[in-house]
Amino acid sequence: MSKRHASRREFLARAAAGAGAVAGAGLAGEAAAGSQEQHTDTSAPAAAQPRAGGQGHGAFFNHDEAATVATLTERLMPGAPGKPGARDAGVLNYIDLALAGAYADLQDFYRRGLAQLDEHCRKTHNASFVQLRAAQQDDVIRALEQGQAAAFTWPTAQEFFNTIRTHTMEGMFADPIYGGNKDFAGWRLVGFPGAQAVFTPADMQSRQAFTRAPIIGLQAQARKS
Predict the structure, then answer these.
(1) 74 falls in which pLDDT band (50, 70, 90)?
(2) Structure pTM?
(3) Does any domain span residue 219?
(4) Is residue 211 part of a domain?
(5) How many domains does the chain have?
(6) Would 44 be classed as within a structural domain?
(7) Residue 182 has pLDDT above 90, yes or no
(8) Is 209 part of any domain?
(9) Are 210 and 191 spatial neighbours (Cβ–Cβ below 8 Å)?
(10) Residue 115 and residue 117: Cα distance in Å, rounded?
């Protein structure tokens, strides 16, 4: 994994660890910032049942869209030995379910953004995003982040990048009940304990990441009530 991607995943992990809403779905309010008002809802998606393995799609994305989102989110939050990435955490499943539910007003935003991404990649590299080499994919991501992808009109390249980055963080670190954070992959990465019934005095005083099992999510809490 490149130094750029190592620093990127460290930035996202630190941001998640410091976010007060890490146990919920909404980690940042920047999604679609500056775009038309009807396309800027970033509220948490309603609880959804993830598909088997947490890697599925079909609630909203077609096959090609799903492949692009899976590849793009993995480049944003790449896995490494012993450290889960977007694929491991089921980020695709999270975004797919969210767009079929509480983020339904962002469906056109995503459809147009993915179409423009494909146009940009074919014009600059003569191939789709998923067909590019890793270094080329990073160049495309950099162009999105810096607003230098000329194929984008609405959403703009930066709006699309900011939104999918935010949703990648949500899929990594939201409660698994929303379809991502498979097997608490994101929480284990940042040492977040979930909804523990009891914290000991030693837990409260410790400055180390929480590691004691089990990590508990909303689904387990719901079964108890």
Answers:
(1) very high
(2) 0.75
(3) no
(4) no
(5) 1
(6) yes
(7) yes
(8) no
(9) yes
(10) 5
